[in-house]
Backbone:
């Protein structure tokens, strides 16, 4: 029977980590009780000779007091008496001591010898104001890191943190960037990942540990830098202003905790002994190693080559660390567990360490030991950029501000002065009872961390193998105790001891799993919460503690400083594993451990582009149509779902990268969503109603910027498109395959002769050399010039058949009829608009005849393709073209653009209310197969079937788009979108900038309100920006509060150039206006 992973309950066996009692005595209490008895006997009888009565009385009183005070968790009582190190930590200004003796200065060798690497510093005693002394403990004493090690072998570059664990005993900590499990998985993926994790965790190396770290931070530095670069390099000032305004929006989202950058890392250890080999050996192997070490020591003393042996030691250390440590961990994570991991480089590890203590970009790596494989063998080198120890550089701070962590005498928090944060520590004391399904099992930690009230939080989970013998023995003893308790209950006539029965069943179940191959694991789940103040931290910890359902997570109130140190990979300490009397770590088996490992996180799509935020977690997801590859995107959604706002953001992304945009839509009465936004660009933006102007169908693209090979290729693309357009004109509504085939052949021949005619070439060249307003432009060849070439004589047709005659007559009659109509004047005259604007949009309005609309659309599309071919990269936008796609010819043109436009650098963005029209048109499969990104907004309940039928979307995923939760939320200014790429889904939100949102508001009352405000400003680039700013200042609050827009623009008086009713003086440069007015509000 097939398992249902969506309904299978996964139960945590909590008895696995509990200690069996020794009779009535809890196992954790046995040691302290023995110590108390011995101490009482020594004092009462050894020193005071008080007799056995005093001995038994004192022992009983102390044991009972100890039991009452400590209970089941002695560490909570003992930790109360532990104080943070000294009065405060300080920067010990430690110097770097190279692990390789030959690389050390002479004075270091004389002072510290060749054996010591990390120098332990003495506490600093400083007189205080109370007449005493304050003790400051060097922070360098808390860490074990020596330097960063780099291994270059087998065409691999691997980095690790080199820690000194003891004398001649080192530990390598390898870092991996983890691309975890996506948060939206198919059922088959859920079962596969669950099985892979369970099997992979069984292979954990004994004695080593892996620590998973998943965290989020309100850090927008990278995005701010990217947007700043776009704004500075953009050639269009209004677009720069809108980009700067988006920077403000990003900053607000980050400060509010809505936008979070996420990271997933895994730190894996490999520990060596004092001979650079693995420390895990059996008894015989250990004896042999001792004999070999003794022999090596004797040889070193006799020959005096100790330093040579030490250099060989580190070569062997790094080589075996690579072979036995890194390779083993990489295979385990990549192959067995099935995760996508990438090893961290030395720069990655150093930047990550720097970010733990400081802000910004890290300085050069202070010290790196490199083992490099060369033709002559292995070569060990060392790169040192400063004599300061790596830890000293981390905590000394920048720009006069120290970065040394502080505890300030507090037991429950750490102050990270270099980051301006306060850190609280939370630990999981009890695991959850279980999970309702395997799907919930895999994403449990993600669901908690991605809650709307959780931000700036990290989950650290350290996992290591447990001792199978001790755990099995402990389970067997618990089963026996439960059996004895049941027998006693029956003997005394108390009936059934239900608690003992349950405990016995759980013990048997745990033993059964272990005998079947499941392994027991020690797990240390810790959560680090960062806030700006202690008050915020307390509130955040309280919220987080109540988010774990049946699991128990509490805030560490006594030794937060120590657990925070244990979480650093630059120490050898194990997480939640100190010298306490009881085990603080949880014990789970490989079947259930996946539930507390933070592996789930939405995967990235692109590295830059238009930014979305995931609905849970607020992780930035980017869609890039221009850089990594030329992309195609389809945006679908009902009216009011925010399609136009999102579509304009893609256009703005192209313009910000100095990529021209061409588009077409079917608007009503000339009112398009993009009209106001395009008019902001002045001469660089052109919005044309194709029915009131003219667009020369035979105007070629301007290819003068390309080399001859690329110019010829692009000209062929244009000729192919014009051939299709002319064929559509010639054939009209006639469906005759033989005639259509001959018409195509004749048009190809006519175009070739036409474009090679010397007079035609001269007229084209003169038109492009002069301005589009010049008389030469009016002499550019047009459709009437081309029709003259459609004769038997000009085409030089030697064998002239009846089909040829019919074909030429068809071409001439259809073109002549078109030239005599109003439509002919629109497409057969020189273009009445410039070929140069950065964005051109063609509105198809006022066309009631289907054939005229079709031909006009072809002409508008020709203008779009012409402009696109004139540039290396471009963006074509088709807005609501459902009516035109029903015509086979136009659908084939759009299909060809999607299929072959990539080689011409043409990115495509289509906007539609549903996928039906596109999928049902004649080129539907061609269009949809070449769409990379499918972006779906709010849909109707009846539209769910369309997405299931045409796009194959699972009903449980697409049905959420039809709920009220997917409606745009005006109060927070965002719209909801389902992204799909390659069968993978992301649930996201789009947060537009306020100015951009105001520029494309397209409801009738919104347009009227905007027109009232814009009318009071001069029609210049600066005036339009000032008007848009004034409108946004009133529009956005009204939109958030749902007040309506009738009051907007009613109380404004006409403003002179450069002055608005709200502000007195504005700079003349739009960029300066941006910085003073649009950002600093």
Residues:
């Amino acid at each position: 029977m097939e398992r249902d992973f969506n309904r299978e309950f996964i139960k945590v066996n909590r008895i696995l980590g509990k200690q069996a009692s020794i009779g009535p005595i809890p196992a954790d209490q046995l040691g302290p009780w023995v110590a108390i008895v011995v101490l009482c006997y020594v004092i009462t009888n050894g020193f005071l000779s008080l007799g056995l009565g005093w001995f038994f009385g004192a022992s009983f009183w102390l044991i009972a007091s100890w039991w009452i005070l400590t209970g089941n968790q002695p560490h909570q009582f003992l930790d109360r008496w532990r104080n943070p190190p000294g009065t405060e930590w300080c920067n010990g200004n430690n110097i770097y001591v190279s692990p390789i003796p030959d690389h050390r200065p002479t004075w270091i060798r004389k002072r510290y010898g060749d054996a010591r690497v990390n120098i332990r510093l003495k506490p600093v005693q400083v007189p205080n104001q109370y007449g005493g002394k304050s003790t400051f403990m060097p922070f360098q004493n808390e860490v074990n890191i020596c330097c960063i090690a780099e291994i270059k072998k087998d065409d691999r570059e691997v980095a690790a943190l080199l820690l000194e664990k003891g004398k001649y005993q080192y530990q390598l900590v390898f870092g991996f960037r983890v691309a975890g499990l996506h948060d939206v998985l198919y059922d088959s993926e859920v079962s596969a990942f669950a099985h892979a994790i369970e099997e992979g965790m069984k292979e954990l190396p004994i004695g080593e540990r892996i620590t998973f770290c998943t965290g989020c931070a309100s850090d927008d530095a990278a995005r701010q830098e990217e947007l700043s670069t776009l704004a500075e390099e953009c050639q269009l000032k209004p677009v720069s202003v809108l980009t700067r305004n988006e920077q403000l929006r990003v900053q607000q989202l980050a400060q509010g905790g809505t936008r979070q950058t996420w990271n997933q890392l895994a730190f894996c250890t490999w520990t060596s002994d004092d001979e650079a080999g693995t420390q895990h050996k059996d008894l015989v192997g250990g004896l042999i190693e001792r004999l070999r070490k003794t022999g090596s020591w004797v040889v070193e003393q006799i020959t005096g080559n100790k330093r040579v042996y030490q250099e060989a030691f580190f070569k062997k250390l790094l080589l075996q660390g690579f072979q036995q440590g890194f390779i083993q961990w990489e295979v385990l994570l990549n192959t067995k567990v099935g995760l996508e991991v990438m090893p961290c480089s030395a720069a990655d590890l150093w930047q990550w360490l720097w970010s733990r203590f400081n802000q910004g970009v890290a300085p050069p790596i202070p010290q790196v030991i490199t083992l490099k494989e060369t033709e002559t063998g292995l070569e060990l080198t060392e790169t040192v950029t400063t004599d300061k120890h790596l830890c000293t550089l981390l905590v000394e701070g920048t720009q006069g501000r120290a970065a040394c962590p502080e505890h300030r005498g507090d037991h429950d928090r750490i102050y990270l002065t270099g980051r301006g944060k306060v850190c609280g520590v939370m630990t999981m004391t009890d695991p959850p009872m279980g999970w309702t399904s395997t799907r919930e099992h895999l994403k449990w930690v993600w669901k908690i961390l991605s809650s709307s009230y959780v931000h700036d939080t990290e989950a650290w989970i350290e996992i290591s193998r447990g001792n199978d013998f001790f755990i099995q023995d402990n389970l067997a003893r618990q089963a026996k105790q439960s059996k004895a308790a049941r027998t006693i209950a029956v003997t005394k006539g108390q009936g059934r001891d239900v608690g003992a029965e349950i405990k016995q069943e759980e013990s048997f179940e745990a033993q059964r799993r272990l005998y079947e191959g499941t392994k027991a694991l020690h797990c240390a789940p810790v959560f680090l919460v960062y806030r700006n103040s202690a008050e915020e931290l307390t509130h955040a910890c309280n919220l987080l503690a109540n988010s774990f359902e049946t699991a128990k997570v509490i805030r560490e109130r006594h030794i937060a400083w120590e657990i925070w140190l244990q979480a650093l990979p630059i120490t050898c300490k194990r997480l939640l594993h100190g010298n306490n009397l009881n085990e603080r770590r949880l014990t789970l088996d490989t079947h259930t451990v996946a539930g507390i490992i933070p592996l789930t996180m939405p995967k990235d799509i692109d590295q830059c582009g238009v930014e979305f935020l995931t609905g849970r977690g607020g992780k930035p997801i980017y869609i890039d149509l221009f850089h990594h590859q030329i992309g195609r995107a389809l945006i679908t959604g009902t009216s009011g779902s925010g399609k136009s706002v999102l579509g304009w953001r893609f256009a703005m992304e192209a313009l910000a990268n100095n990529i021209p945009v061409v588009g077409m839509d079917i608007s009503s009465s000339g009112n398009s969503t993009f009209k106001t936004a395009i008019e902001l660009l002045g001469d660089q933006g052109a919005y044309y109603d194709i029915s009131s102007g003219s667009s020369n169908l035979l105007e070629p693209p301007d290819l003068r910027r390309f080399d001859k090979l690329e110019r010829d290729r692009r000209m062929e693309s244009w000729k192919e498109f014009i051939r299709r357009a002319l064929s559509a004109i010639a054939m009209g509504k006639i469906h005759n395959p033989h005639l259509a085939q001959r018409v195509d052949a004749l048009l190809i021949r006519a175009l070739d002769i036409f474009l090679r005619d010397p007079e035609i070439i001269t007229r084209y060249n003169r038109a492009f050399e002069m301005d589009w307003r010049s008389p030469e432009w009016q002499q550019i060849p047009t459709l009437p010039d081309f029709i003259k070439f459609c004769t038997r004589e000009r085409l030089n047709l030697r064998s002239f058949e009846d089909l040829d005659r019919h074909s030429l007559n068809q071409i001439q009659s259809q073109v002549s009829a078109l030239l005599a109509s109003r439509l002919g004047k629109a497409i057969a005259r020189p273009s009445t608009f410039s070929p140069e604007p950065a964005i051109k949009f063609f509105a198809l309005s006022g066309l009631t005849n289907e054939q005229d609309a079709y031909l006009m659309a072809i002409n508008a599309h020709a203008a779009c393709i012409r402009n696109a071919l004139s540039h290396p990269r471009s963006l074509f936008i088709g807005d609501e073209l459902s009516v035109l796609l029903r015509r086979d010819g136009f659908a084939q043109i759009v299909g060809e653009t999607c299929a072959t436009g990539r080689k011409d650098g043409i990115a495509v963005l289509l906007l539609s209310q549903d996928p039906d029209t596109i999928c049902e048109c004649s080129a539907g499969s061609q269009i949809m197969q070449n769409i990379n990104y499918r972006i779906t907004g709010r849909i109707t309940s009846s539209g769910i079937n369309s997405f299931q039928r045409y796009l194959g979307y699972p009903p449980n995923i697409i049905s959420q788009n039809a709920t009220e939760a997917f409606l745009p939320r005006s109060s927070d200014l965002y719209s909801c979108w389902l992204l799909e790429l390659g069968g993978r889904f992301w649930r996201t939100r789009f947060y537009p900038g306020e100015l951009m949102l105001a520029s494309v508001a397209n409801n009738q009352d919104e347009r009227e309100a905007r027109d009232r405000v814009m009318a009071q400003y001069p029609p210049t680039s600066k005036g339009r920006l000032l008007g848009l700013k004034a409108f946004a200042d009133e529009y956005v609050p009204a939109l958030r509060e749902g007040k309506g827009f009738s009051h907007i623009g009613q109380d404004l008086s006409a403003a002179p150039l450069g002055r608005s009713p709200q502000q007195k003086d504005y700079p003349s440069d739009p960029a300066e206006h941006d910085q003073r007015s649009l950002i600093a509000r």
Observations:
- The first strand starts at residue 10 and ends at 11.
- The radius of gyration is 37 Å.
